[in-house]
Amino acid sequence: MSKQDTIPKESRQRIMKNLGEYGCYFLSLVHMAERITGKRIDAVEVFVRVLEKKWVDEEATLLDPASVLGYMTGLNFTVRKDSEQYLPRQNEYEILQFVNGSYTHFVVGDGKGYVSYDPLGNSRTVAQGKCMGKRIFTQM
Fold it and tell me: What is the top-level taxon of the source organism (predicted)?
């Protein structure tokens, strides 16, 4: 049985819908973990596991993002909010928070304040909005 077979099809579809609508922060962390580890990660499988640990809720709101990234990478991280001007140091990774009106969207930054990965491809919130802060993940 493959990993994909461990989650019923109906549950997988519901999770994928929620991640597509609300999971930009979570999906940004998955991408970041893939970059760190060099391995492909099944986002739905991870979502189910971290949901069980109560590090994320049903609508993909991250309750403990450092633990989620640590779970995917096998490394220890801390996370803090910082200003959009902050430039990450060695062993730090950034998630950028963009706001456009009432919309908020999270993307992976390149370490210089630019977008290196957008879960939506080319988000209107990024294109027309403003970076309002960063989540800085520090590897311990």
Answer: Bacteria
